[in-house]
Amino acid sequence: MFRIFQETLTNITRHSRATRVTVNLVQANDALELHVRDNGRSITQKEINDPKSFGLIGIRERAQYWRGAVEISGKPETGTSINVRFPMPPEEPQ
Questions:
Q1: Superfamily assignment of 2-87 in CATH?
Q2: Low-confidence residues of the chain, pLDDT below 70?
């Protein structure tokens, strides 16, 4: 999760021209969720799907390795958001 968060901040710094970033990390029931939103220029669908977007590819690969899911979206005048969800392992009986 940390490396995904780090890459998200790197992408915001390099590409978004954002002046504000909001981050939430929560444990919700059976998952750990990271929500990052900026107020920058907004990522396009073309950029999301670009096979040369190595940072986004790395985020997806890391999430997939841990059976996680990634949602990336952008809306003009609103910014970009990325949501990552990792399932939590079941608790061991004590």
A1: Histidine kinase-like ATPase, C-terminal domain (3.30.565.10)
A2: none
